[in-house]
Amino acid sequence: MNTPPEFALSRRTLLKLGAGSASVLVAPSAMADVPGIGAPARAPVTTEVAFKVNGRVRALKLDTRVTLLDALREHLHLTGTKKGCDHGQCGACTVIVDGRRINACLSLAVMHEGAEITTIEGLGSPDDLHPMQAAFVKHDGYQCGYCTPGQICSAVAVLKEIKQGIPSHVTADLTGRSEASAEEIRERMSGNLCRCGAYSNIIEAIEDVGGQRA
Q: Domains (ranges, CATH) in the chain?
């Protein structure tokens, strides 16, 4: 059966009709808050925040959406702290805030007003290495080195957690003091990934420092 000429549609005409009808379905009011289409985009909100970084008080005026990681790297130029996944999954951005390790990429800078923050630059210097930095060198606890600042900051905090009696998922006695065993260290360091696979050397370095401080 042949279609009458007045009802025949080309593919191009059909696509044009479809696009036209689709645009009609979107109410103009629904586009009012879309930047560049409706109302003009609102200017970013900025605020002042001050914290002590590696023993020095630093004051910044930041967009409230700036992460602690970007504040450290882009505004204070402390680039030892690395941006890896930017989703809190790799641990490369680990820093110590008020004695506890955190993923700096998951925390807003404005949340840390008055906090004491320690980055890898604040742990030691080439002429005066922190014991954990020296242990990583001694045990060859790195290869490419990208994850190393986060690994070291996390390791320093791990030994402090163990000393304070904070249990992990593998701690057998929750009322007693856990030891800096390889099992404890592996569990506590599981959030710090090393794509080069230097895990065994990292564990040895942390055990070494843990034994020295026991």
A: 43-123 (3.10.20.30), 124-214 (1.10.150.120)
